[in-house]
Write a structure and sequence with these properties.
The complex is a heterotrimer of chains A (837), B (172) and C (165).
Chain A: H1 2-28, H2 33-53, H3 56-73, H4 80-103, H5 112-127, H6 149-153, H7 166-193, H8 196-219, E1 221-223, H9 225-228, H10 231-242, E2 246-251, E3 256-258, H11 259-280, H12 284-289, E4 296-305, E5 308-315, H13 322-331, H14 337-342, H15 345-349, E6 364-366, E7 369-371, H16 373-382, E8 386-392, E9 396-404, E10 409-417, E11 420-425, E12 429-434, E13 442-445, E14 448-453, E15 456-462, H17 463-466, E16 482-488, E17 491-497, E18 499-507, E19 521-526, E20 532-536, H18 538-544, H19 549-555, E21 569-575, E22 582-585, E23 591-596, E24 601-603, E25 606-611, E26 614-620, E27 631-637, E28 644-648, E29 650-657, E30 661-664, E31 670-676, E32 679-684, H20 686-694, E33 706-710, H21 714-726, E34 730-734, H22 737-746, E35 752-756, E36 758-759, E37 762-763, H23 764-773, E38 779-784, H24 789-797, E39 802-805, H25 809-825
Helix pairs in contact in A: 1-2, 1-4, 2-3, 3-4, 3-5, 4-5, 7-8, 10-11, 11-16, 22-23
Chain B: H1 20-24, E1 27-28, E2 33-34, H2 39-50, H3 58-63, H4 69-75, H5 81-89, H6 93-121, H7 128-154, H8 157-169
Antiparallel strand pairs in B: 1-2
Helix pairs in contact in B: 2-6, 2-7, 4-5, 6-7
Chain C: H1 3-15, E1 21-28, E2 31-36, E3 40-45, E4 49-50, E5 59-65, E6 68-74, H2 75-78, E7 95-101, E8 104-110, E9 112-119, E10 124-125, H3 133-136, E11 139-145, E12 148-153, H4 155-158
Parallel strand pairs in C: 6-8
Antiparallel strand pairs in C: 1-2, 1-9, 3-7, 4-5, 5-6, 7-8, 10-11, 11-12
The chains are: A alpha+beta (837), B mainly alpha (172), C alpha+beta (165).
């Protein structure tokens, strides 16, 4: 340590001389901020080193001097007394250092006179500032959250909060945003450097940055009480005007929300509460007549829910008048009687969100313009939130708003279209689907493009076309290989792009005035590699696809969709047996296979065939349908991931027609009869066949296969695990190599392991080796955005079963099933190694 | 990757003077030490700095364990870890002793801070009661870490040459 | 002109006091305009440009300047001049003047930034009658200097895109 002491003595002697000179200079030029900052730094450094070296006497003295210099740095007046005190301290320090050098250790002494003097001036400087006022910062200074200056002045009284200048807070927010950007830049650079020593500190930096972000965001949070505050008065006035008795209950007023968001929800919230008072609560006479208390209740409750705020606005009034809504909807041409008949109450209630629907009755001039429910919902959706409505006739209604906690920094997908990149807020993206595998493709229906995805028919458009991007020559005519499925409110739709480049946290910056009128963009940002990209606005994209809210408000239900948006369904018209012709909606058929009789095997009275590497049962669509020599037509139906085949005689046609089942069917396997273009056909009941197959039979496996999925992007983890679960697998997720190893340590029995090649704490290939060392016996599959030759070569070299692109659902499932097969049977059948094409 | 920013600022490109070898290896050939080790102390330093406003990190702060230079690299899976250990073996014993003395002092400061935390933790005015001591500990640790970092990155020659220069200037 | 020299230039001018008005001479095509030095934040060459689909055609796109997103506007296009015959298209590498207008940071793309001129009340002249209306709206005044007529660039008009919508 004495070497450090020697060095310290050498340096500090110079430093203390410099400090002395600078203080004198500062007295002459008290406006020189740089000078006082430099003096402060010098003394601060000496103080720290003294502390480290255990030079207690010196540390105490320099600490007192530093405090007073700190006051000067913050704008206190440099009176002659103050400067003299500091100079006296500096002289004492100089002397002590000399003594130290001679004696080899600190010489005992009493500096309390000096220290008291210094502290006295510190108190004076602070005493001039009254207790609870905001701490004013000098220009350009950033508030130091660790320095409770107010607390020091009020000795003994604890300060649990400090007040901070709003501008300062904004500045800190800005700095944090810049930090996030810089971190992204570093990650980008590190990715290309392949430098192991960078990865661990970078990971730490990333965590620290996220934590810092959270901490600062928290500083911007304000209780929603500010928005609740004006509600009681409003209700009271309304109650008076409308001659109603209304009681307002608010809950969760202390729930906190980002400042920016509070301003944005104020209007929608006020409007909804008004709505309850206006339309929901009945007059006292009416209420008494139906057995309710004369006073109606409107309740506004806010609560936290992982990453979101939920605000419920409910009333115990008459609920939505569905009859009236239906009437209005018909009158406005938003629907037809037949469609109405098929709608659930919830679907009907969604009409109130149609543009212009509610404005006629209620021109609520909130912020100076007539506001309808459609605008309310749009405002909520614009900030990434959602708005839902439930109602019970006669009992009341409830609006539920879900709002994300923060706005400015958000995860986004970076997509590419026509050679240009755009950012898409992750909260609006449901999944992404590869279009080259053959299972999914864009179809054209009456001039509009659609995508059939599992049980949904989605409107879809090309991002390049929507934005009218110029198409680079080499791409002309090539269809886009990827569909990004988005959801805005209750409307799902898709956009096709060339690629998803990345998933990144971006700092959302508002558009400049010159382009803020563009509705398809909600902001712009700078990515980790320095490039500027525009951020797509999901609402704007939805609108430019030509989807109007009114249409979506009744076609919205995802689970039950008997009619496509254009009201007709694509049906497969086929023959099965000698009876009447049959139909099935095309959307319920996963694949139409032509199967040679030789491929059909028999076991325990059941028909089976190999499909995608597994044995799949086949059942005849009608009792008199049998296997013919040569080619047979089999519909592969895959309701919940366990596919089965439906054997038919032949396909007549694929038509587009409205499906109105008029007469219920009595024959098993038939839902009922319908009329297609004058011909009577029967709609096949798939549920019947599913039941049929549930009967005890030889199943190749009796437990779900267990997969380990390792990917650092939450987006991909969620998307892929949904896909895999839907395909019948049990999925264990891991976000880092460390987590993956942890899972394997707990239970090494996995049937297959999928690893992202690019993980923050090491490459996926290295992880594969480590997992094997840790005892995992399963085959491993490399995941990359696209399975390029490089990736598959590296996968081979690492002894993995193969590589597959994250959007290649079919190939991924094929490869997984093949690995599982091999694992069970122990003999490799067909070779599945290498790139999944 | 194209240089996406305006060309007045050079974003990419290797820092001047640094050869690719030194960038990739852990051990500084000049001193035989690797500054990756300092992460051991950086961790507790950061925790102490955050503690007053984020008391939920107390458990992490209390769980921090000091680790010696050899211990650290023995446990590390970073590629250069072996090299760091070899280089350390070959260090001049005087240099090593000095280095370890500084580290011992850093550890002493950190452990003392942990003891204070443990004492104050249950009390009602935590973490306000430790705000000041955390700040002071952080300042002192920073001073020490700055010194060690200089040792690792530049070596000891600066001190002696500086005092030698001063002596010369003072004409003794 | 590199940023370094423009910075130094800026400092010298400010140091010289306010009696003189320093104007950068900006060349685009065959035209030269004067722009007060005080309105110029920086002179630089832009890097990669991200286009803004659907935006006003005179906006070439968005550019990253030291971490700030700046809207690049082509003065050429604003003036209705066609692209430079035989010259390279406006984009990465083009010369730009950084100007702030109504809280938005802009990069005005020009062909060249020439010498700094000193313009005073003596050099000011009345607007010449033959200037077309389109061009006229971009000039906020005229000077005669060295025998040439020099219009002063009207920044407000240059960055006001509302008219075109």
């Amino acid at each position: 340590m004495d070497e450090m002491l020697k060095e310290f003595l050498a340096e500090s002697a110079e430093q203390i001389e410099a400090a002395s000179a600078q203080i004198v200079e500062f007295e002459r030029n008290p406006a020189d901020a740089a000078l006082i900052a430099s003096i402060f730094r010098l003394v601060h450094t000496i103080k720290g080193t003294c502390g480290f070296l255990g030079l207690n006497r010196l540390q105490k003295l320099t600490h007192a001097a530093e405090s007073l210099i700190g006051q000067l740095r913050e704008g206190a007046k440099a009176t002659p007394d103050v400067v003299s005190a500091i100079l006296a301290a500096v002289d004492r320090v100089k002397r002590m250092l000399a003594e130290l050098e001679e004696a080899g250790q600190e010489v005992a002494g009493d500096d309390s006179d000096l220290i008291t003097r210094l502290e006295h001036y510190v108190a004076l400087c602070q005493g001039a500032v009254p207790e609870e006022t905001p701490v004013e910062q000098g220009p350009g200074a950033v508030a130091d959250a660790h320095e409770p200056a107010a607390a020091e002045a009020t000795q003994g009284k604890r300060a649990e909060t400090i007040r901070i200048n709003l501008n300062t807070l904004e500045r800190i927010m800005q700095l944090v945003s810049e930090l996030v950007l810089t971190r992204n830049q570093l990650i980008e650079l590190a990715r290309h450097k392949d430098d192991e020593s960078l990865k661990s500190p970078l990971q730490r930096l990333s965590t620290m940055t996220s934590d810092l972000q959270d901490a600062v965001m928290r500083a911007r949070m304000q209780p929603v009480e500010r928005v609740f505050a004006n509600l009681p008065r409003m209700i009271r006035d309304l109650a008076n005007d409308l001659h109603k008795k209304i009681n307002l209950i608010t809950e969760g007023a202390d729930t906190e929300l980002d400042r920016q968001l509070i301003d944005l929800i104020r209007d929608p919230l006020t409007h909804l509460v008004r709505n309850c008072a206006d339309h929901g609560i009945e007059t006292p006479e009416e209420r008494l007549r139906v057995g309710k208390p004369a006073t109606g209740t409107v309740r506004v409750a806010a609560a936290h829910e992982a990453g979101q705020i939920t605000i419920e606005i409910s009333d115990d009034g008459r609920g939505l008048n569905l009859a009236k809504i239906k009437e209005k909807a018909l009158a406005r041409g938003l629907t037809t009687p037949q469609q109405l008949a098929q709608m659930s109450d919830e679907d009907v209630s969604r009409f109130i969100f149609a543009p212009g629907f509610s404005t006629a009755d209620q021109v609520t001039n909130v912020s100076g313009r007539g506001v309808g429910m459609d605008v309310v919902r749009e405002n909520i959706q614009a900030i990434g939130g959602s708005c839902a409505l439930t109602s019970k006739p006669g009992q009341g209604s409830r609006f539920t708003l879900k709002i994300p906690l923060t706005l400015a920094i958000a995860p986004a997908l970076i997509v590419e279209a026509s050679g240009q990149r755009f950012a898409l807020p992750q909260h609006s993206v449901v999944e992404a689907v590869g279009l080259n595998g053959g299972e999914h493709k864009i179809e054209c229906v009456q001039g509009s493009k659609i995508l059939q995805l599992r049980d949904e028919v989605l409107p879809i458009g090309s991002l390049a076309e929507l934005l009218r991007l110029p198409v680079p020559a080499e791409r002309a005519g090539a269809p886009e290989p990827l569909a990004v499925i988005m959801r805005v409110g209750a409307q799902s739709f898709g956009i096709t792009v060339d690629a998803v480049i990345d998933v990144q946290e971006i700092v959302v910056k508002p558009l400049g005035g010159s382009i803020s009128h563009l509705t398809t963009f909600s902001g712009h940002t700078i990515l980790g590699d320095g490039s500027v990209v525009l951020i797509l606005d999901p609402n704007g994209v939805c609108r430019s696809l030509g989807l109007e809210q009114s249409r979506e408000s009744h076609a919205a239900s995802v689970e039950n969709l008997p009619t496509a948006p254009s009201d007709k369904t694509r049906l497969v018209h086929f023959r099965a047996g000698s009876g009447v012709d049959k139909v099935l909606p095309l959307s319920s058929i996963a694949r139409i296979e032509t199967v040679n009789a030789a491929r059909i095997e028999y076991s325990s009275g059941m028909m089976l065939m190999r499909h995608q590497g597994r044995l799949m049962p086949i059942v005849a669509a009608a009792p008199d349908v049998t296997v013919r020599e040569g080619d047979n037509t089999v519909f592969v139906i895959s309701p919940h991931g366990e596919p089965f085949g439906l054997l038919v005689d032949s396909i007549v046609d694929i038509v587009e027609h409205r499906l109105d089942v008029e007469i219920g069917g009595e024959a098993p396997g038939v839902i009922g009869a319908a009329d297609i273009g004058g011909k009577v056909v029967e709609l096949v009941d798939i549920a019947y066949f599913i039941d049929l197959l549930q009967m005890p039979q030889e199943r190749p496996r009796d437990r779900k296969s267990r997969l380990l999925l390792v990917d650092d992007a939450a987006f991909f983890r969620d998307m892929l695990s949904s896909t895999l679960q839907a395909a019948g697998f049990d999925v264990v997720k891991a976000g880092t190599a460390a987590q993956a190893l942890g899972h394997v340590a707990q239970d090494p029995h996995f049937d297959a392991i999928l690893i992202d090649v690019d993980l923050p704490d090491g490459s996926g290939f290295q992880l594969a080796a480590r997992l094997r060392e840790a005892g995992a016996r399963a085959e491993m599959i490399a995941l990359a955005p696209y399975a390029t030759r490089d990736v598959s070569r590296n996968a081979d070299a690492a002894g993995m079963a193969g590589a597959v692109g994250k959007f290649q659902r079919n190939q991924m499932l094929d490869l997984i099933r093949a690995c599982i097969e091999r694992g069970r049977e122990g003999t490799p059948e067909e070779s599945f190694r290498g790139v999944a094409a | 990757m194209p240089n996406a920013m305006a060309s007045e600022i050079a974003l990419t490109g290797t820092p001047s003077g640094a050869s690719d070898d030194t960038v990739l290896s852990l051990v500084n050939p000049l001193t035989g030490l690797a500054n990756d080790y300092l992460n051991v102390y950086n961790e507790i330093l950061l925790l102490l700095e955050f503690l007053p406003s984020m008391p939920e990190m107390t458990d992490d702060a209390l769980a921090w364990q000091p680790r010696g230079y050899c211990e650290y690299f023995e446990q590390s899976s970073i590629p250069g870890a072996r090299d760091a250990l070899h280089a350390y073996d070959k260090l001049d014993p005087g240099v090593r002793a000095h280095f370890e003395a500084i580290l011992a002092r850093l550890t002493e400061i950190a452990v003392s801070a942990q003891n204070t935390l443990a004492e104050e933790f249950g009390r009602p005015d935590y973490p306000d009661s430790i705000a000041k001591s955390c700040e002071e500990t952080a300042e002192v640790m920073r001073a020490g870490l700055a010194y060690v970092a200089r040792l690792i990155n530049e070596g000891r020659s600066t001190a002696t040459s500086k005092s030698a220069r001063r002596a010369k200037n003072n004409g003794c | 002109m590199s940023l370094e020299s423009s910075k130094i230039l800026g400092e010298t001018l400010h140091g010289a006091g306010n009696a003189l008005d320093g104007y950068f001479s900006i060349k685009v095509g065959a035209d030269t305009f004067g722009l007060p030095v005080t309105q110029v934040q920086a002179i630089f060459r832009i890097g990669a440009v991200t286009s803004a689909p659907g935006g006003p055609p005179d906006i070439v796109g968005l550019v990253n300047l030291r971490g700030k997103i700046v809207t690049a506007v082509s003065l050429r296009r604003r003036l209705g001049l066609g692209p430079e015959p035989g010259g390279k298209p406006e984009g990465a590498g083009s010369m730009a003047i950084g100007v702030e207008h109504r809280n938005e940071a802009f990069a005005l793309l020009v062909d060249e930034v020439g010498d700094v001129l000193t313009l005073t009340a003596e050099t000011a002249i009345a607007p010449p009658p033959h200037i077309g209306r389109r061009r006229a709206k971009f000039a906020s005044g005229y000077n005669r200097i060295g025998g040439q007529i020099l219009p002063l660039l009207n920044i407000d008009a240059v960055f006001d895109f509302a008219e075109d919508r």
